[in-house]
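Working notes for the structural subgroup meeting. M.R. asked for a predicted model of this chain before we commit to crystallization trials. I am recording the input and output together here so anyone reviewing the notebook later can reproduce the run.

Input as submitted:
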Amino acid sequence: MAVDDGVYALTRFELNGQQRLFIVTELAENNGHPLSFAAERIATEILRRYGADIPPSSALFVEHYDPGVSFRGPATAECERFLEWSVTWHNRQAVFIHPKPVSKRGTH
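Returned structure, recorded in token form:
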């Protein structure tokens, strides 16, 4: 998915008929803004393209980094991680995103 000068992978899941989950993955070949710096723009564009039929509160977003696809070399590779976005919306535009680690439910 291209947004402005960045390129990101997008995976979409329909949840219980009322919510939609979007997982946005940073790609190593992204020469534009890093995912974390473009989050508001990306969330707004995803909602415009793939969530026009749902209220913003029904869109769930997860920022994803995968060592296999997100980084150019081993020096910058890290463990796979997921960050849930808490999005503040104004007129279907994301104005602030607070990322927080996704909890590991069911693990000790």
